[in-house]
TrEMBL record:
Name listed for the protein in its UniProt record: CONSTANS-like zinc finger protein
Protein localization: Nucleus
Origin species: Phaseolus vulgaris (Kidney bean)
Source organism, top-level taxon: Eukaryota
Pfam families xref list: CCT
GO MF term (any one): zinc ion binding
GO terms for cellular component: nucleus
InterPro entries noted in UniProt: CCT_domain, CONSTANS-like_Bbox1, Znf_B-box
Domain B box-type: 1-47, 43-90
Length: 411
DNA sequence: ACGACAGTACTATCCACATATGTAA
DNA sequence: TTTTACATATGTGGATAGTACTGTC
């Protein structure tokens, strides 16, 4: 018998709702999340069948058990035999899916005895969706079953802070900036779920368009201090380019006038939540690529929930997202030991893989280009045909040594 | 282990001028 | 309040100098 439903306290909890920070049985899940359109958008996931605390992250086909990243690591990370177990990532869902739709979301759905039973009892007669709107149902468009889904709604208040001081912890009141209205808000706290080709994070450039924080002179001078605790456990991993790259953003944003999103978002959580934030970031495989390689438009995002926090570092633009996805740093995280785990002898088996991943990541980083955005095409057109002397524009009629049009010299 | 050196990578700066933006009449 | 005239700020790309980083001895 697992843990009881947070709502009725009677049935066994089977799903976890991030938005409500609650573990619910299927019946209560449906009752609670069919209340209104907003609650229907809450993303839920299976509950880890081992710890019964965290949302499940993968399904082990061999053991037929759903596990959060922590438990997955404990179960599969350290043992060469168990690490070969076939696993698939677990989708989130929203709306009020029927048993059939659960099956479509989770191909292993019927393999879960408690789910199957509960579903027969509780959902068997239910319609797919009260309003017949299938869009309520996750997975969202373009996402396959084995992928993962986005969290479309997080209730956690998000605070921005700016300045040179360290992340405000207890007693330090962060400077709260107004969040820009519109879709950006909705996009901001999206989580990255592993295994998803199209992360969906900030797919719309408008997010950043609306989120210009030039006036916010954010500097993360003290990032070592900020993340010191986390780094103490993950130094080995991140010294290979992780946080170093992440905080290159500081320098870049300082020098690039058009830099947007020089912002940071911090959770309401306690200082102790910082470590959890880092851990959860990785437990959610929080877009490691963007996390590691955020360079042009950094957003440090912490969203907190009691003992569990989620972190997302996102510098992904629409154009770069694919590139980031291809970056191998994510595999570095997924293949190696969790960053919060101290190095142990067993981990040596993964060190080679990790080294390879790091090497590939560095290669990728080398070749990656951050394209300049031209704001005024007319000016560009003019500059393109301007004559120059040693790269400098010259007055019309003056002698020049370079003519972009004819590639000739006037002398 | 440490310093010197060479090679590489990256950034800031310069230029003229069309255009955007702000201010006053 | 709207229009007009003027002043100032901005942003384009290529070359180059300067700085930072990396690898070798």
């Amino acid at each position: 018998m697992g843990y009881l439903c947070d709502f009725c306290g009677d049935q066994r909890s089977l799903v976890y709702c991030r938005s409500d920070a609650a573990c619910l049985c299927l019946s209560c899940d449906r009752n609670v999340h069919s209340a209104n359109a907003l609650s229907r958008r809450h993303s839920r996931n299976l509950l880890c069948e081992r710890c019964n605390l965290q949302p499940a992250f993968v399904r082990c086909d061999e053991e037929k058990i759903s596990l959060c990243q922590n438990c997955d690591w404990l179960a599969h990370g350290s043992s060469p035999t168990s690490s070969t177990h076939k696993r698939q990532t677990i989708n989130c869902y929203s709306g009020c899916p029927s048993a059939a739709e659960f099956s479509s979301i989770w191909s292993f759905f019927l393999d879960i005895p408690s789910m199957g039973e509960a579903c027969e009892q509780e959902l068997g007669l239910m319609s797919i969706n009260e309003n017949g709107n299938k869009s309520d149902l996750v997975p969202p468009e373009g996402q396959n079953v084995s992928g993962s889904a986005q969290v479309t709604d997080l209730p956690t208040k998000v605070k921005f802070w700016a300045g040179t001081s360290s992340i405000p912890v207890s007693g330090s009141e962060p400077r709260i900036l107004d969040q820009p209205p519109g879709p950006g808000n909705e996009c901001m706290p999206k989580l990255y779920c592993p295994g998803k080709k199209n992360s969906g994070i900030c797919e719309d450039d408008n997010l950043y368009d609306d989120f210009i924080m030039d006036e916010v002179d954010l500097e993360l001078e003290n990032y070592e201090e900020l993340f010191g605790m986390a780094l103490s456990h993950s130094e080995e991993l991140f010294e290979n380019g992780g946080f170093e790259s992440l905080f290159e953003a500081k320098d870049m944003s300082a020098s690039v006038g058009e830099s947007h999103c020089q912002g940071a978002v911090v959770a309401e959580g306690s200082s102790a939540g910082l470590v959890n934030a880092i851990q959860s970031a990785c437990s959610n495989a929080a877009s490691a690529d963007s996390m590691l390689s955020t360079k042009t438009e950094p957003i440090v995002c912490f969203t907190g929930r009691q003992s569990q926090s989620n972190i997302s570092f996102s510098g992904v633009t629409k154009e770069s997202a694919g590139d980031y996805q291809d970056c191998d740093a994510s595999s570095m995280l997924l293949m190696g030991e969790p960053p919060w785990c101290p190095p142990c002898p067993e981990s040596s088996l993964h060190s080679a893989n990790r080294s390879n991943a790091v090497m590939r990541y560095k290669e990728k980083k080398k070749t990656r280009k951050f394209e300049k955005k031209v704001r005024y095409a007319s000016r560009k057109a003019r500059a393109d045909v301007r004559r120059r002397v040693k790269g400098r524009f010259v007055k019309a009629g003056d002698v020049y040594d370079y003519d972009p049009l004819s590639q000739t010299r006037s002398f």
